[in-house]
Amino acid sequence: MLPFKRNKTANETANETGFFSKLRAGLKRTGSGLGQLFSGRQSIDADLLEELETHLLMADVGIEATTQIIDDLTARLKRNQINDPDSLRTALREDMLAILEPVAQPLVIPQQKQPFVILTVGINGAGKTTTIGKLAAKLKQDGHRVVLAAGDTFRAAAVEQLKVWGERTDIPVISQPTGSDSASVVFDSHQSAIARGADVLIADTAGRLHTQANLMDELRKIARVLGKQDENAPHEVLLVLDAGTGQNALAQAEQFSEAVNVSGFVLTKLDGTAKGGVIFAIAKRFGIPVRFIGIGEGVEDLRTFNAEAFVDALLDVSATEKNAS
Amino acid sequence: MFSNLSDRFEAIGKRLRGKGRLTEDNIQETLREVRMALLEADVALPVVKDFIADVRERALGAEVMKSLTPGQAFIKIVHAELVQLMGEQNDALDLSTRPPAVVMVAGLQGSGKTTSIAKLGRRLIEQDKKKVLAVSLDVYRPAAIDQLQRLASEVGFDFYPTDTTQDPVATAKAALGQATTGYYDVLLVDTAGRLHVDEEMMSEVGRIHAAVQPVETLFVVDSMTGQDAANTAQAFNAALPLTGVILTKTDGDARGGAALSIRQITGKPIKFLGIGEKTDALEAFHPDRVASRILGMGDVLSLVEEVERSVDRGQAERMADKFKKGQGFDLEDLRDQMQQIKRMGGLGSLMDKMPGMGQMSQQVGNQLDDGQVRRQVAIIDSMTPDERRRPDVINGSRKRRIAAGAGMQVQDVNRLLKQHKQMQKMMKQLKKGGMKKMMRQFGGGMPPGLGGR
């Protein structure tokens, strides 16, 4: 067993304020918190708008979404709907929420006969296996019977990595040796999940760049094989995105959606200085739900995505202000 | 990977082409386009700002006015600026130390460190015939050590088994001990992925570095990284004396702006590109090539040649005129030609750029290296205008004066004059063959013997 060096202490449990302050701590680490922009200002000038634009761009929000937000704020300024920095901040918050709120839909696992199949996909190193480990633990806690499919049969020791997670959380991992056919592992796992009476199957897949046509075909095959078992499977296709990814995340979202019909996103590694702003661009363009965010390596560091908490963390609104409002 | 950014620049280039000259206004518009393109390519905002400032300065300077078409001049400026940003050269691993040479990698989670170690190992074994030992200090991520062990046996380098209950620093020291007693050439040290804001982990990697004293400390970074590349690169650069960067996952379609940002912020060379998942998918980094890909050119040579050719067209036409009027090829013309060579990046690079120049390039290269070109230009500069136009007036006393002025010997002046005479003679022969033929043969109007085309 590997040391659990970075497991969190008990007082850092999953209560809302703990999560909120942690997310905020992560997002404001660069010291370029958007919130600081508004403090100590008496009036709105062109500089403030330009700085705002700068901050949005530096958070990876991207040109398109940034321009839309700034244009809207400028228009509201002209109509005198905004007249001081405070109302500008409120307006900005509204605009950002308007983009993210529609996609803040948590993953709901319905009661059904066949196991609910979650297929996780993404590029290399995005954090798929870690996310699966955390998600499996979470679902188990919620009373689900979970089975894991070690579908990454390409990368050296990927199967072992998932098995360690399985041991940690006491969840069965169905695997075949590295180099075997991924679709066949997933097929076996589905059979096994039914045999064990599990209600959730989470399938890992090898990381792949969305530009590699043959590997994308392999994903299609996995989805097809699952579809033959249960015409509604996979019930959820989770695309795992590294929050540090820039505008290329859009291309990833597009290509993976095209191949396997992505139904939800997981935004990982938000505990660094990456802001994950590209999620705004993705939300605007694809409207696919954002299910979870990853804010650490501990089992409890996978959180349900909350648009308000995310935007407030970006805007650096203090927890007390938020509670008061 | 840079295709979209390339398209973008290509579109900008096309729009500018055909305009009479660059004015402050149309530069403004184009610079905004460049800014957008760079931001969409995930170049860090501060880097973009510097870039825009530089390009603006250059575009409004004299360089643009001299050129023939503003579009080409603009592309040239953007290209030159990009190349400058990417660094000047491709650096290989520097392993010149008493063996074992330690090569260490560090970076964020999921950037591709372990895969890169395997690729480096393979390269060291196959290309450099080194005896390689590798150790993984990642006791945190499940099965990370297994991963390196598998890759080691697949590629064929030795693996130091890590005891996960031990402190990584102690393991690193023990592995170095084994590398020394086992007469290994290289010890590859894989470290755990870590966030640059995790103080404990950053201090650990610092201690590992101090314990094994690597000759190469490589920062491994995902080419798809967004604006945050600036923060992470800065933090890792501050925590570790980095010697270079490995840019991974470049076989995707990311526009690769991170490459520009990291290079600019750390000042450290990007040494390798990861271009696939297999262990042989590691490529040396060529800044000029990447810059041209950004510019939308197949390779840098086609661009430089195109631009340089157009820059030279004015001079070539003037010279053609001269010949038509029956005037000779004087020393001033010789100097112009030499300066053109210098502008194109010296003889060596000029020769390399020219297909079918192999033999001639060797011949001329021996006869005339870049330093010689510079010295010969200095000699001509020391002459009076009259002497340049009519070299026949140069007598012994003038030669002594010219040599002193250029800091050269009289023999050097003689050699130059003799060379010029030979060229004149060849010019005359060619003239008989017809001007058109000569210009076709020598493209931009380079004199024979100087490696013209």
Automatic annotation (TrEMBL), chain A:
Residues that coordinate or bind GTP: 122-129, 204-208, 268-271
Pfam families xrefs: SRP54, SRP54_N
Catalytic activity field: GTP + H2O = GDP + phosphate + H(+)
Quaternary structure annotation from Swiss-Prot or TrEMBL: Part of the signal recognition particle protein translocation system, which is composed of SRP and FtsY. SRP is a ribonucleoprotein composed of Ffh and a 4.5S RNA molecule.
InterPro entries: AAA+_ATPase, P-loop_NTPase, Signal_recog_particl_SRP54_hlx, SR_rcpt_FtsY, SRP/SRP_N, SRP54_GTPase_dom, SRP54_N_sf
Database matches in Gene3D superfamilies: P-loop containing nucleotide triphosphate hydrolases (3.40.50.300), Signal recognition particle SRP54, nucleotide-binding domain (1.20.120.140)
Domain of life of the organism encoding this protein: Bacteria
SMART domains: AAA, SRP54, SRP54_N
Domain SRP54-type proteins GTP-binding: 289-302
Protein name, per record: Signal recognition particle receptor FtsY
GO annotations of cellular component type: cytoplasm; plasma membrane
NCBIfam families referenced in this protein's UniProt entry, alphabetically: ftsY
Keyword tags: Cell membrane, Cytoplasm, GTP-binding, Hydrolase, Membrane, Nucleotide-binding, Receptor
Protein family per UniProt: Belongs to the GTP-binding SRP family. FtsY subfamily.
Topology in membrane: Peripheral membrane protein
E.C. code: 3.6.5.4
Residue ranges that the Swiss-Prot or TrEMBL entry lists as coiled coil: none
Automatic annotation (TrEMBL), chain B:
Biological function: Involved in targeting and insertion of nascent membrane proteins into the cytoplasmic membrane. Binds to the hydrophobic signal sequence of the ribosome-nascent chain (RNC) as it emerges from the ribosomes. The SRP-RNC complex is then targeted to the cytoplasmic membrane where it interacts with the SRP receptor FtsY. Interaction with FtsY leads to the transfer of the RNC complex to the Sec translocase for insertion into the membrane, the hydrolysis of GTP by both Ffh and FtsY, and the dissociation of the SRP-FtsY complex into the individual components.
Annotated residues for binding of GTP: 107-114, 190-194, 248-251
Organism, scientific name: Spiribacter salilacus
MF annotations from Gene Ontology: 7S RNA binding; GTP binding; GTPase activity
Domains: entry comment: Composed of three domains: the N-terminal N domain, which is responsible for interactions with the ribosome, the central G domain, which binds GTP, and the C-terminal M domain, which binds the RNA and the signal sequence of the RNC.
Compartment list: Cytoplasm
NCBIfam families: ffh (TIGR00959)
Keywords: Cytoplasm, GTP-binding, Hydrolase, Nucleotide-binding, Ribonucleoprotein, RNA-binding, Signal recognition particle
Any Pfam family hit: SRP54_N
Domain SRP54-type proteins GTP-binding: 269-282
Designated name of the protein: Signal recognition particle protein
Enzyme class, broadest EC rank: hydrolase
UniProt entry tagged with the keyword Cell membrane: no
Family per similarity comment: Belongs to the GTP-binding SRP family. SRP54 subfamily.
